[in-house]
Amino acid sequence: MDILDFKDENEYADQMHTGALLNPRIDSTFKALFTRDTKESREALHSFLEAATELKISEVVLKPNDDGVRFISQRSVSYDILCTLDNGQCANIEMQAFNQAYDYGKRAEHQVARLEVSGLKKGESWQKAPKVFQISVLNFVYKNEMEKTEKKNLSEDTGINHYVMQTASGRQLANILNVIFIELPLIAPKESTIEKNTPLENWAIFLKEADNPRKTDLIVKLTKKEAGLMQAQKSLSAISADRDLWLEQFRQETLERDILSAKEASEELGYKKGLELGLQRGIQQGIEQGIEQGLQSGFEKGRLLVAQNLLRSGKIPLADIIAVTGLSEEKLQKIANSQ
User: Which of 200, 239, 233 minimizes the C-alpha distance to 218?
Assistant: First the structure.
């Protein structure tokens, strides 16, 4: 149910009495799922780490989540779930429920570098440099600045991506820096292939659908297939009886809804103002530049491209497009019909 279906946070928290489960994609719930001092929580964390790193792990120790600064001007780093593994290896697990304005990939690379810096002690040889992992569960599809301008074939992307340092041709270094992204919106096609999936793919399905009452049968199949997921389900059920976690979930979802609403309002206002300014300046500048350079540099092609983009948006009146591009209504109709 949506938070708008509840009159206040207390009514929202009363869901705990109905058998409803907390949303594991909310930061506070995600942390509680893996870090409670219970057998179920510890085994779930161990299972998830083995699935993500593809290592056989004998020991997992939770560590403090704040990495101290080493010089005055250095920025501090806070981790979600920080663990040490066998032989000094280290892993940080992050849950990102909502896409942020910054490039999350840059944050992930910075975090994995900080993990490596903190893992090698003074006097130790480079052979002692530990393998470190930054594991991020993303409730959105990650796109960096390059991907935002390119067409990415998402149908070929399962949502599980393991990044290491390598050349453009694929030649790798020592692979001690590992960034793993689990993009939950892309995992849905794997719901029909549970028996063939990797353990991490099944973990992704669980995290995406564990609280969805319409996917109960799917979760039952997953927990029967993976012992670690059975423990995760038990851990999630246990923490879903914690009222404080329900209240925290309500506050986080409310905050993110407010941020999203403000962002959408700002974008809409910016779009309107940009259109008004563009119509005022674009016509004049377009005429001036067209006279001076347009014919020599493919002005007609440029006008067609602008018209295609404006028509594709579906928001701009035809009269305004005619005014900006100088194309006839008949010409614009032909362009629209060809798209």
Answer: 233
Map residue 66 onto helix, strand or coil.
Answer: strand
Q: 256-265 burial, b if ≥16 CB within 10 A, otherwise e?
A: eeeeeeeeee
Q: 313, 336, 320: which is closest to 283 by C-alpha?
A: 320
Retrieve residue 119's tokens.
């893992």
Structure tokens at 246: 């329900």
> Residue 71 gets which letter from DSSP?
S
User: CB–CB of 95/137 below 8 Å?
Assistant: yes
**pLDDT tens digits, 78-89:** 788 999 998 789
Indicate the residue type of 28.
S
CA distance 210 to 203: 10
Q: Hey, how many other C-beta atoms are within 10 angstroms of the C-beta on 66?
A: 11
- First-to-last alpha carbon distance for the chain, in angstroms, is 38
Residue 321 main-chain phi, psi, to 5 deg: -65, -40
pTM higher than 0.85, yes or no?
A: no
Beta strands 66-67; 90-96: pairing state: unpaired
List CB contacts of 91: < 8 A, sequence separation 6 or more. Answer: 49, 52, 53, 82, 83, 85, 132, 133, 134, 135
Rounded-to-integer distance, Cα 269 and Cα 281, Å: 18
- Do 228 and 44 meet the contact criterion of CB atoms below 8 Å apart? yes
Question: What is the DSSP secondary structure assignment for residue 131, as one 8-state letter?
Answer: P
Tokens 């067409």 belong to residue: 151
Instruction: Please list, in sequence order, all residues whose beta carbon lies within 8 angstroms of the beta carbon of residue 248, skipping any fewer than 6 positions away.
Output: 26, 28
| pLDDT tens-digit map of 201-235 | 999 999 999 999 999 999 999 999 999 999 999 99
State how far the Cα of 25 lies from the Cα of 250, in Å rounded to an integer: 13
What are φ and ψ of residue 90, in 5° steps? -135, 145
pLDDT tens for each residue of 281-315: 655 555 555 445 443 445 566 677 777 777 776 76
In contact, 339 and 311? CB cutoff 8 Å: yes
